[in-house]
Specification:
Immunoglobulin-like; five-stranded antiparallel β-sheet; about 300 residues; alpha+beta; globular; three-stranded mixed β-sheet; 2 domains; 13 strands
């Protein structure tokens, strides 16, 4: 469900690119000792600098690095992070040449994932204040570029993902990992696509048809994607619909017979509230497009 109070007013984020790693550590220690509630975390072994395809490179296996400065604003009704705060970053040790021993090797992500004590501290003491998220809110500290695509553990790649798990982004991450390991998509292309917008990453990479979802279809050039998230507060499902069908009627129908009609906004987005059951297939029609999701 969309909660306007969760969206902080944007503030320009000061660049840290010109700072040496030693200055970052010194500043963090100063803030911990003398400033307000700011948490210092370990400096990365390799400075976060632009490289290759534009995403920062940070080698920090097994530990959270960096921090967030300023205030951040969610995008797309909470489904995407602020690109100034969370643009995404990747581990330079994960390359196209060594995928067989890294992201395509079963269990590899467990060897580079930080301990929960670090991720929970970062989530509640750094990410929540930056994104204006109430401490009681349930979210997942998400790697924008997932570890299974070579994402780093740096603050530039971490955000409190809303809505809470289970989240449809997880299936996108799995699909992109499979496509990269199968050789259908290059590693850098997958990293760029998911960092830019995980909602459209599969379509941009040609992994789903123009209709999106499971076997979506519709008129020539018409497409939509749908995802579902349960709201414990209202005991219904939010059916998030993205499409190229602005200002059109959208209908979501669950396999339990429940149906609800709404309309897309000027960008082709709609959030349809539906009393579906867990495990239902929800079929969506919007303008000339159709798609589906599972609750």
């Amino acid at each position: 469900m969309y909660h306007p109070w969760r969206y902080a007013a944007p503030v320009i984020i000061p660049s840290a690119r010109a700072l040496a790693a030693g200055c970052v550590v010194a500043l963090a220690l100063f803030l911990v000792g003398f400033g307000p509630a700011v948490v210092a975390v370990a400096a990365p072994a390799v400075s976060a600098v632009p490289f290759g395809h534009g995403l920062k490179k940070v080698h920090d296996p097994g530990r959270v690095t960096g921090t967030i400065h300023g205030h951040c604003a969610y995008r797309d009704h909470g489904q995407l992070p602020d690109p100034r705060c969370t643009p995404g970053s990747v581990d330079p040790d994960v390359t196209q040449a060594d995928m067989g021993s890294t992201i395509c090797k079963r269990g590899w992500t467990a060897t580079v994932r930080p301990p929960e004590s670090q991720t929970e501290r970062f989530k509640y003491d750094v990410a929540y204040p930056a994104y204006g998220t109430p401490s009681a809110e349930r979210t997942e500290l998400d790697h924008l570029v997932p570890l299974e695509l070579g994402g780093s553990n740096d603050a530039t790649n971490l955000w409190p993902e809303y809505p809470p798990t289970p989240n449809p982004k997880d299936s996108v991450e799995n699909a992109l990992n499979a496509a990269v390991c199968d050789g259908r998509v290059s590693l850098t292309a997958a990293q760029d696509a998911i960092a830019s917008d995980w909602l459209t990453a599969e379509r941009k990479l040609g992994l789903v048809s123009a209709g999106g979802g499971s076997g979506g279809g519709g008129g020539s050039g018409a497409w939509c994607t749908a995802s579902a998230s349960y709201s414990a507060t209202y005991r219904d499902y939010d059916i998030y619909v993205h499409s190229n069908q602005p200002d059109k009627t959208v209908t979501a129908t669950a396999s339990n017979g429940a149906s609800r009609t709404w309309h897309t906004d000027s960008t082709g987005y709609a959030d349809v509230y539906l009393y579906a059951d867990s495990g239902d297939t929800v079929r969506v029609t919007v303008g000339a497009a159709s798609c589906s999701t599972t609750t």
